[in-house]
Amino acid sequence: MNNKSPFLKSTMTNGLIMGFALVVLSLIVYLLGLGINSKLNWISYLIIIGMLIYAQKQFRTEQGGFASYWQLVGYGTLMAVFAGFISGIWNIILMTVIDPGLWEQTMIEAQNVYLEMGFNEDQVEEMMVNAEKYSSPLITSISMAFGFGLMGFIFSLIISAFLKKENESFDMVMDKIEENDEK
User: Fold this and answer.
1) 0.85 cut: is pTM over it?
2) Is the alpha carbon torsion for 41, 45, 50, 55 positive or negative?
3) Contact, 6 vs 71, CB < 8 A?
4) How far apart are CA 71 and CA 60, in angstroms?
5) Closest CA to 89 of 145, 130, 38, 128
């Protein structure tokens, strides 16, 4: 249990930092009135990737300079889930307290995107009816946490391949040999 507490604390701390950085970006986009289709939103991917690299390097250092591929993948995924919860909470506050009309505006923007993609008006209307049935700021926020987790997992699969550093010390190799001998 002692090994998991620092792991959990570290993922939460770095997830909170990443989440707040994404909230600040979201706030800037909102205050500038750029909407959901802003090219500025792509900066969120840079924040996520940059934070994952920084935090996974930090985690590896805290582990004595060594971390396996799957340790780093798990670390990055959990960190992204925490960031997703922070972003989701912000999303709820933004769309229910700060600007309750933003949800409707977001739905209108989505409708326009579908029309620009070539869907006819009947198809778009049907999509919007379904979206209204199954969507709300709360559901969207929960989806954000899962989405961030998935995104963190995918990015971590790639990043961890470069950052992993297995401990192949003499003792570890001997433990593996002993395990094989016991079989």
Assistant:
1) no
2) positive
3) no
4) 9
5) 145
